Amino acid sequence: MPLLQITLIYLLVGAVGASTYLYLEGALWWRFLGADIAMTVVTYAFSVLKRNSSVYDAYWSVIPFYFVVGLALVTDVTSWSWPQWAYVVVVSTWSWRLTYNWARSWPGWHHEDWRYVNFRNQFGAAFQLVNFSGIHAYPTAIVFLSSVGMFWVAVPDTEIAWLHALGLVTASLGVWLEFVADNQLVAFRRAPERQKKDILQQGLWGMVRYPNYLGEILFWVGLVFCGFGAGAPPWTAAGATGMIIMFLFASIPMKEKRMLQRRPHFSEVQQRIPMLLPWKGLRPGAKT
Fold it and tell me: What's the rounded mean pLDDT across residues 36-50?
């Protein structure tokens, strides 16, 4: 039932986005931005209604898929060639895989992301301001900026095949890394012999501490290259840059702090396994 409810919520979110797009006039990107804002507001309203900000968790992966489907519906797809269709396939694969990974790990409405719980405790009465601005609006802005190159991909000013191909390879590598890393993490968590304080240090997780984040970064950087291959201006890299900054200075530090609090021996893992790039060597680890 909870999974059905969240599915219905996101179908309603998509309907609101489509209605907003049809209502607005102007440039393609402007209408999509308006739809994105409207969908974020609806998602926020449900997070307040359900008293659970994790309503927003699936937004990150669902909305780019809505965007590529929307672009296919409102642009002249008869003029599309391999760059456009390959782009749609890569984004859709990323979106469905990441959404599925979230869904299989979501226990239901009784669960809320630990970061949001911390924010509730930290900000008290001011939490709803943080909820809207930090948990909903900021990620929406980052994802939109990171996706903005797709408007050039859909209606290209030019076509630089090698640059677009580089973007597709980079993004596909990111999707593959996330797929493997997330499956390894799920298998580790479900292993009957695992102890509560064990830390995954095998497979990709023995090479870098956050292979899933590395994959996510590569995916968004790849989309930037695809945009450049279609003639997108340099400023369209701002979103992916912001994404990298968010991972390096917010997501990862918060995760590291939590790991050290819950598993003090994580400091030894920090010394031995690189954070994102395996410059210290591809050394497999072992559970401690």
Answer: 97
Tell me the pLDDT tens digit for each residue of 185-201. Answer: 999 988 888 777 789 99
Closest among 140, 153, 135 to 17, alpha carbons compared: 140
Q: What is the DSSP secondary structure assignment for residue 251, as one 8-state letter? A: I
Q: Which residue has the tokens 């739809």?
A: 35
Ramachandran sector of residue 66 (left: φ over 0; alpha: ψ -120 to 50; beta: rest): alpha
Please choose, from the candidates 171, 148, 169, 140, the residue with its C-alpha nearest in 3D space to the C-alpha of residue 231. 148
List all residues 6 or more positions away from 155 whose beta carbon is below 8 Å from its beta carbon. Answer: 28, 75
- Is the distance from CB of 183 to CB of 255 less than 8 angstroms? no
pTM reported for the whole predicted model:
0.92
Residue given tokens 């859709």 in the structure block: 92
Q: Are 164 and 226 in contact (CB under 8 A)?
A: yes
Burial class (CB in 10 A: 0-12, 13-18, 19+), 3: exposed
d(CA 104, CA 116): 20
Residue 69's nearest CA partner among 147, 134, 140 is 147
Q: Which long-range contacts (CB under 8 A, 24 or more apart) does 75-78 make?
A: 75/28, 75/154, 75/155
Residues 6+ apart with CB under 8 A from 167: 222, 223, 224, 225, 226, 227, 228, 229
Task: Of 110, 176, 173, 141, give the one whose Cα is nearest residue 39.
Answer: 141
CB-CB contact of 65 with 143 (8 Å): no
* 225-243: pLDDT as tens digits: 999 999 999 999 999 999 9
d(CA 96, CA 178): 12
